Here is the input.
Amino acid sequence: MAMFGSASIRGAAAADATIISGQQGPPAGPANHRETLPQEEPLEAKMARRFPQKVKVADLIGLPVLDDDDVTLGHVQQVVRSPQGKIKLIVTYSRWFGWFGHPVAVPIEAVAIFGKQIASLEMPPAEYEKAPTWMAGTDRPLPESEIIRIALTRR
Here is the structure.
């Protein structure tokens, strides 16, 4: 019985010495899980993985747009389509909880809806800050009765 106990202690001591000397075996998988993920996945592909659902444009107007910390970045003012066919939400961005802001164009692929709020998943607040003030130009406002697709998310 004493031999079993001493063998266990010697085995543990050897394991400690191996760990201390840094002679661990190679990791079972890639050291960095990011190596296995696509580095720059297009926004369209990210949106497709988020189960886009149909929504009427009128139901998006007025919804708050939140960042990762649930701070309101702004509210959806209107929904437009660019000449290239890309849908954008026009959000009144402001550092003061979305009040008295300037309009910023946010790609529909960069956001997702959860309940009666919109999460800004792929566009951090710093990008809203740097974004130019949106001007109508060639973008065409979508009628409130039009049905578009928006990704789903949860918190």
The beta strands are 53-56, 64-66, 72-81, 87-93, 102-107, 111-114, 117-120, 140-141, 147-152. Residues 77 and 92 are 7 Å apart (CA to CA). Confidence is low (pLDDT under 50) at residues 6-35.
